[in-house]
Amino acid sequence: MTATLLFLPPGADDPWQWLRIDRDAIVDRGEGLPEGDAGAVIAVAPADAVTLHWADIPARSAAQAAAAARILVSDASASPIERLHVAVGAAEAGGGETDPRERPIGVVAAERMRAWLDALAGIGIDPSAVIPAPMLLPRPDSGYVRAQFGPQSVVRGPSSGFADEARLTALITGDDSPESLGRDALDAAIVSAVSRPELDLRQGPFAKRRRRAIDWRLVRRLAVLGGLILLATLAIDVVRIAKYSAAADAADARAEAIARDGLPRGADQGDADRLLAERLARLRGPGAGFTATAAALSSAVRGVAGTELVALTFEPNGTLRATVAAEGEAQANQIVARLREAGFVVTASTFESNGQRLRGDVTVALP
């Protein structure tokens, strides 16, 4: 552990003092401001500016513990609670909702706390924690211990901590005189207290704002994962396209096989679609073919009452010649009109009387 303790001066004329901890030992100390790489800076608040309490508070959430502490402090403080900053220390091991443990509570004027942080910011220091000076001393099982921090002497008991003033100390300790800690014992207590602070005043509105550093390793990992996702998506599309292409080729192969089944044996090799179209044209005849042309003529005759088809001839050039009998010339004209509406070119001869009916020839072809 590497850290620098910077003691906030109790008075405006008092000097700054500091000590540096490295590898669980105090390696340097001095007055003024630390120079060089100070590592993590922990500010130590003077004992006379912070009032300490101990209370049984269940180990609830930080917000619930702070609310409970403010209620306790409001009953024991003469100042309005809105002007005070209340910080709650960690619960002792084993504490819980049904088994509360004593927790330290630090009370300091909010204006004083703000002034400390502003003064430290003015010299380029943003402390990672602010610890009341009495909390650097070991908590005795009984009695009191005393130590000197620069110009200020500090006393701590099992459930108290305060600045050492003759009348106040005597009033609190009574006949139990505080035991002064030696240099080695004090250094060991400071190192232990800094490694695991019991109470940090930087809470709530004065909590240290942590800058979120960019985790480049995570960024690179996310970039790799994003690239793999894109490659997987591209691979899926490529596989899908390949499947569609294979299915299309298989469909073309099946269509060609079916087309070749419709060709006569010994047909020339080549495009089966073209060969099948040519055979179909030969089978149905030129023009629209016999079937389509005869169907159009039959439909026209059926659609006109009093007409009938007498004879039918299909010429090699695709022309259909038919003899039609009708009750009158009007019915014959209706047949011609229906064929023309179907898209055919119609030529009709003169209809002559044959008994009680008219008979004539009609020639039907494509344009």
TrEMBL record:
Keywords: Cell inner membrane, Cell membrane, Membrane, Protein transport, Transmembrane, Transmembrane helix, Transport. It comes from the Bacteria. The keyword Transmembrane helix applies. Residues 216-364 form the GspL periplasmic domain. Residues 44-159 form the GspL cytoplasmic actin-ATPase-like domain. It is found in: Cell inner membrane. Coiled coil: none annotated. It is a single-pass membrane protein. Belongs to the GSP L family. This is General secretion pathway protein GspL. The lineage of its organism: Bacteria, Pseudomonadati, Pseudomonadota, Alphaproteobacteria, Sphingomonadales.
